[in-house]
């Protein structure tokens, strides 16, 4: 737990007399994002973590002269409570009685008082929504480019600027020129002369390049502006690989290189002609969007975001292949872990996660983890996005449920899988909870639905059997997954919330299927597979719209010991048995090929039909 009294006092002193005619601000908002509105950020951008102590990936802090508040969602309630000191009030997003930040400010500030925020860190959409809310109390939302946290964060790390690597068309399935051609076609249809690309995964995907500026996310700090005849790339040019010129030539594209900080001047120049129409996503920063005259502005999801979500044939095959290799590593780890516990060896959450990474490193095309492994034993498993630390780690034992949510980056794809285990004797209650989660996961995974169905229409399929007995989980059921990119990828999601930018589920999108259940202070259960959206054969074919379903590509057994078989229908048992046969038939030969008879024997046991 971080002691924040001193830094809060320093921040409040700064808020009292700001330069450039701003004067006093009565509240300061600290978002969790960076200037690219990234979900996961580098250490230099962890401003909200610095001021509050809470280091989860989602949340925003608000500091007034008398209060400090932290808004975050249900994944992080427990974590935030444990990491923040008594200066802070936790505001639980998602609960009916929790106001939005804007609504709280409008109610608790005096009329006309100013609210400050770094406009580079808040999306244009979020800024607009908050502006409307605070205006009801005649409050003024001011963009402060000179970030106040940076002024008191004396030992702030330097921003990362690591080398970039290039991907061949054999890995991506499309050249940069082919992608640009489709993008310019959509720009012409939209009447856009300029497209601004700020999301780091969109930049990396467009350029067939990857980086490592943000841990676990193979992206690099850069912006791109596409016009109908030029491509501008803004970045630290020292990080470009030696084959950059050759890479662009092979992709049949010419790119004008500019410094990273030149984005504002170039965008201002391109946006000023009265005839110039500029397309920028509402998820891009308010600071950049504000440079574009309103009558020149097209504010919609970028074509890149949608194109990236639908994998090429080569990308799709890479996703399938890397999940098979990843499955071998997972089975090796869980087999090793069960044996270690049987032998009475000491394994804790950190040493277990480290061992899993060792198995993954042996797999072909491994590039690193896709997120910090969530390795939670007993009550730690009930913290939805728990990451073990020396001060919190628990021993993994045969008497508690163990939840392991992990993933890896490979040159040909990205993985994300959760399995829940009990290496001793689970209670009847634990088995019921696990089985209800599994039934929901099967119900989702076998669904047939019309082409381009919105993800929120499917979410309840996974919750039904928990809802039947008044249980639920505080996170979405599915997120998109990038191809050797961010493990959380939009614009689609399977979630109880409606997402305006969701284009609908389509063939060759890859999403997670991950219902769960969590009892605070007791245990956590989650079963997560990555599924590929594929065509389905139906009698009606939804009157020509087309039918879709899911194909599970994750290859790892689901522990049958935790199943209450009386709660399972015959159809559900047949489905699970068929999945386990596929897992065994796919992975066992690979293990035999390297002489890993130990893991084969474990895999055989775990995939026995029920």
Task: Walk me through what this model shows.
By secondary structure, the protein is an alpha+beta fold. Helices cover 34% and strands 19% of the residues. It has 19 helices and 28 strands. It has a six-stranded mixed sheet, sandwiched between helices. A six-stranded mixed sheet has the order 12-11-10-8-13-14, sandwiched between helices. Strand 22 and strand 23 (489-494) form a beta hairpin. Helix 14 packs across helix 19 (597-606), helix 16 runs antiparallel to helix 17 (459-467) and helix 18 packs antiparallel against helix 19. The chain is globular, with a radius of gyration of 25 Å. The two termini are 46 Å apart. The mean pLDDT is 96.
Describe the structure concisely.
It is built from 19 helices and 28 strands.
Query: What share of the residues does DSSP label as strand, in percent?
Result: 15-25%
What structural category characterises the helix and strand content? alpha+beta
Overall number of strands: 28
What would the principal axes of the Cα set say about the shape?
globular
Average pLDDT reading: 96
């Amino acid at each position: 737990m971080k002691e924040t009294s001193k830094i809060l006092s320093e921040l409040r002193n700064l808020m009292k007399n700001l330069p450039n005619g701003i004067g006093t601000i009565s509240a300061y908002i600290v978002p969790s994002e960076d200037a690219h509105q990234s979900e996961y950020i580098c250490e230099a951008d962890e401003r909200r973590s610095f001021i509050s102590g809470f280091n989860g990936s989602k949340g925003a802090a608000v500091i007034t002269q008398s209060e400090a508040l932290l808004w975050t969602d249900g994944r992080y309630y427990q974590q935030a409570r444990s990491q923040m000191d008594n200066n802070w009030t936790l505001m639980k997003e998602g609960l009916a009685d929790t106001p939005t930040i804007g609504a709280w400010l409008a109610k608790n500030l005096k009329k006309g008082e100013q609210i400050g925020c770094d406009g580079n860190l808040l999306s244009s959409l979020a800024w607009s929504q908050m502006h409307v809310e605070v205006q009801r109390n005649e409050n003024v939302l001011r963009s402060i480019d000179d970030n106040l946290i940076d002024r008191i964060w004396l030992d702030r790390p330097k921003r990362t600027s690591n080398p970039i690597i290039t991907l061949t068309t054999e890995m991506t399935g499309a050249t940069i020129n082919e992608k640009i051609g489709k993008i310019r076609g959509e720009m012409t249809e939209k009447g856009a002369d300029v497209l601004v690309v700020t999301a780091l995964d969109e930049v990396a995907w467009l350029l067939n390049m990857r980086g490592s500026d943000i841990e676990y996310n193979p992206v690099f700090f850069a912006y791109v502006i596409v016009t109908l005849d030029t491509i501008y790339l803004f970045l630290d040019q020292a990080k470009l690989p030696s084959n950059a010129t050759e890479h662009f030539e092979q992709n049949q594209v010419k790119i004008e290189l500019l410094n990273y900080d030149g984005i504002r001047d170039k965008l201002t120049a391109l946006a000023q002609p009265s005839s110039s129409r500029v397309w920028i996503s509402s998820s891009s920063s308010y600071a950049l969007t504000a440079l574009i005259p309103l009558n020149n502005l097209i504010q919609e999801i970028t074509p890149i975001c949608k194109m990236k979500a639908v994998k090429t044939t080569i990308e799709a095959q890479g996703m399938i292949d890397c999940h098979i290799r990843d499955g071998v590593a997972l089975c090796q780890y869980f087999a090793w872990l069960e044996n270690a516990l049987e032998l009475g060896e000491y394994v804790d959450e950190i040493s277990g996660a480290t061992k899993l990474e060792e198995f993954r490193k042996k797999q072909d095309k491994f590039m690193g983890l896709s997120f910090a492994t969530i390795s939670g034993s007993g009550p730690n498993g009930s913290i939805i996005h728990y990451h073990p630390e020396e001060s919190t780690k628990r021993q993994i034992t045969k008497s508690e449920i163990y939840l392991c949510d992990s993933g890896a980056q490979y040159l040909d794809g990205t993985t994300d899988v959760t399995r829940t285990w009990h290496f001793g004797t689970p209670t009847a209650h634990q088995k019921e909870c696990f089985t209800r989660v599994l039934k929901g996961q099967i119900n989702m995974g076998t669904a047939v639905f019309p082409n381009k169905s919105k993800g929120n229409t499917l979410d309840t399929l996974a919750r039904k059997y928990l809802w039947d007995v008044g249980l639920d989980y505080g996170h979405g059921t599915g997120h998109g997954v990038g191809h050797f990119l961010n493990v959380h990828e939009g614009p689609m999601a399977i979630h109880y919330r409606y997402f305006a930018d969701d284009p609908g589920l389509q063939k060759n999108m890859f999403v997670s299927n991950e219902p769960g259940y969590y009892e605070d202070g007791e245990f956590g259960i989650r079963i997560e597979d990555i599924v590929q959206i594929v065509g389905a054969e139906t009698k009606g074919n939804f009157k020509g719209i087309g039918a879709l379903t899911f194909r599970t590509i994750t290859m790892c057994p689901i522990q049958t010991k935790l199943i209450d078989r009386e709660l399972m229908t015959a159809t559900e048992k047949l489905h699970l048995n068929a999945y386990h046969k596929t897992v065994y038939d796919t992975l066992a030969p690979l293990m035999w090929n390297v002489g890993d008879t130990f893991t084969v024997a474990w895999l055989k046991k775990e995939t026995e039909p029920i």
